[in-house]
Design a protein that fits this description.
It catalyses: ATP + protein L-histidine = ADP + protein N-phospho-L-histidine. This is histidine kinase. It is an enzyme of class 2 (transferase). With 536 residues, the protein is an alpha+beta fold. It starts with 37 loop residues before the first helix and ends in a 7-residue tail after the last strand. 45% of the residues lie in helices and 16% in strands. Helix 2 packs antiparallel against helix 4 and helix 10 runs antiparallel to helix 11. Strands 8, 9, 10, 11, 12, 13 and 14 form a seven-stranded mixed beta sheet that branches. The chain has a five-stranded antiparallel beta sheet with strand order 4-3-7-6-5, with helices on one face. The longest helix is centred in the N-terminal third of the chain and has 49 residues. The chain folds into three domains: 132 residues, Beta-Lactamase, CATH 3.30.450; 88 residues, Helix Hairpins (Orthogonal Bundle), CATH 1.10.287; 160 residues, 2-Layer Sandwich (Heat Shock Protein 90), CATH 3.30.565.
């Protein structure tokens, strides 16, 4: 329930101002190197004298910088290249071995067939009839050592080398089929071609094996690898250089765009030439041109605002002057008293108007000079309500405040948020009839806990739906409405809400007491922030 203003307990608050740092004088060193620093000091002083000059890229900056686009693209191009290069070497080695094995395996297979044809059955026993020419053919190799072996049906040695390794029993091929395997003999790696020969009226076949060492194969594989891999040691550095050069050429338009922007005067808001930009950065140039257009419009709005503000200030100031002159001319004390009261009213109006003009100017210039920090919204709203208790009591109004049981924090500028809430309460007091009720409320959204609502509701005449889009414009007032407002309050609220990335909604607040009036509910929605330990 809303707490009445009479029971509100005022709390003194100390306003703390963060001192702004003043630039320290740079004293040149009094030593022999003083002459060498004159140019750099002069350049730095010149930059401080012109705050609109573009930043000096040579000045150190302690803030962390994101990686350059050039470096990111270079990494993503070179990293796969350097990763695939050793993989290509491994694949080349395997392919080279396969290529080297092909012709030598075919020759070894032919030797196995020749040897198998020399086996003849004699009384049910295998006999190897190997002519000298055939034996010389099998042994004729100037590089590798050649071995052969023939085992009979009972495993006896029929001919050849006794110590050749045997294949597994389940690995013996069918008669007439030659298979290959890698094995060891006398400490050397060998390649073995083996087959079986079937004899008539014998259950077990004869095993025939021919083997050779791998010297020729290794030499051929190495030659292939050298012919393929060695050129890569030249191609890879050239590829890196070409990638570097290509990226430099590709990013040249960005450097040209940067130079063009840095060379501009601060008051030059003409659009960039988007037609000369590559398609990849054309959207960036178009967005920048749109920003320049909006900035130019904003500057025009500022100029128009100054003119409007000056125009609005003429009336109360002129009234103040007229009443002062009138008071000086009157001799009757009652008339003087009445004039002095009018002077006080006009002075208050003028002061309030000037305050609102300054607040609006600060809110509209939200891109510069605004310091954001964590703001405890419930405390801020409570203090703002206390500031307006006397103004509400003077019109016999009941002003109350409602808040959640837990603190609610937002990210924002405490001065601007306080000004926003003060304008909402001021509007509610001005346009609510005497005896009305005003409630200020801070609450969290029931569906989205990351959203907090700041609401000001009153029992006034309300704002028609057709006027709600226009009442947030500067100096706009609804025709036929009484009140001494200037039409700036909701405009200030809108600018401050926009500055904080929030949303503003104006709705009816229908209540049941007579007379049944629409009332007004103004809701400001902001993003909530949490302490690290309290985030759900």
């Amino acid at each position: 329930m809303a707490s009445p203003a009479s029971t509100e307990r005022a709390a003194d608050s100390a306003q703390r101002e963060t001192p702004s740092g003043t630039p320290q004088d740079a004293h040149a060193p009094r030593n022999a190197a003083e002459a060498a620093t004159v140019d750099s000091d002069a350049s730095r002083d010149a930059r401080y004298a012109n705050p609109f000059a573009p930043p000096d890229e040579l000045e150190p900056d302690d803030a962390p910088h994101p990686r350059s686009l050039f470096g990111e693209i270079l990494d993503w191009m070179l990293a796969p290249l350097l990763l695939l290069w050793p993989m290509s070497i491994a694949v080349t080695y395997l392919v080279a071995k396969s290529i080297a094995n092909g012709p030598f395996d075919r020759a070894l297979e032919a030797d196995a067939y020749v040897l198998a044809r020399q086996i003849q059955p004699v009384n049910g026993v295998a006999e190897l009839r190997l002519p000298d020419a055939t034996r010389d053919f099998l042994r004729a190799d100037n590089v590798d050592s050649v071995f052969f072996q023939v085992l009979g049906t009972r495993g006896e040695l029929v001919g050849g080398d006794r110590d050749m390794p045997l294949p597994r029993e389940d690995d013996r091929p069918q008669p007439g089929i030659v298979e290959f395997r890698d094995d060891m003999l006398r400490g050397n790696d060998i390649r073995v071609a083996y087959t079986t020969v079937e004899l008539p009226n014998v259950d077990e076949p004869v095993l025939v094996q021919v083997a050779e060492t791998l010297d020729k194969r290794s030499q051929l594989a190495n030659d292939i690898i050298k012919g393929v891999i060695l050129p890569q040691f030249v191609i890879l550095p050239l590829a890196i250089i070409l990638v570097w050069f290509g990226l430099s050429r590709g990013l040249a338009p960005l450097h040209a765009l940067q130079s063009n922007i840095r060379a501009r005067r601060p008051d030059d808001l003409s659009p960039l030439e988007a037609g000369q930009a590559p398609p990849e950065i054309a959207p960036l140039v178009a967005s920048f041109n749109d920003l320049l257009t909006r900035l130019e419009q904003n500057m025009e709005f500022q100029k128009r605002f100054i003119a409007d503000a000056a125009h609005q200030m003429k009336t109360p100031l002129a009234g103040l002057r007229t009443q002062a002159e009138l008071a000086l001319r009157q001799d009757v004390s009652a008339e003087v008293q009445r004039s002095l009261e009018q002077i006080a009213t006009s002075s208050e109006h003028a002061a309030r108007l000037v305050t609102q003009l300054l607040a609006l100017a600060r809110a509209e210039n939200r891109a510069t000079g605004q310091i954001f920090s964590r703001v405890e919204l419930t405390d801020l709203a409570r203090l703002a309500v206390r500031d307006w208790v006397q103004a509400a009591l003077s019109k016999q109004m009941d002003i109350g405040y409602e808040e959640p049981p837990h603190p609610v924090e937002v990210e924002g500028n405490v001065v601007m948020l306080r000004e926003m809430l003060s304008n909402l309460i001021d509007n509610a007091i001005r346009y609510t009839p005497p005896g009305g009720r005003i409630t200020v409320r801070v609450r969290t959204d029931e569906k989205n806990l990351d959203l907090v609502h700041l609401e000001v509701e009153d029992t006034g005449l309300g704002i028609p739906a057709a006027e709600r889009q226009r009442v947030v414009e500067r100096f706009y007032r609804i025709l036929g409405r009484e009140g001494d407002g200037s039409g700036l309050g909701l405009a200030i609220v809108r600018e401050i809400v926009t500055m904080h990335g929030g949303s503003l909604a104006i709705e009816d607040h229908v209540y049941q007491e007579a007379p049944r009036l629409a009332g007004t509910l103004v809701r400001v929605s902001l993003q909530r922030v949490y302490p690290a330990r309290d985030k759900p």
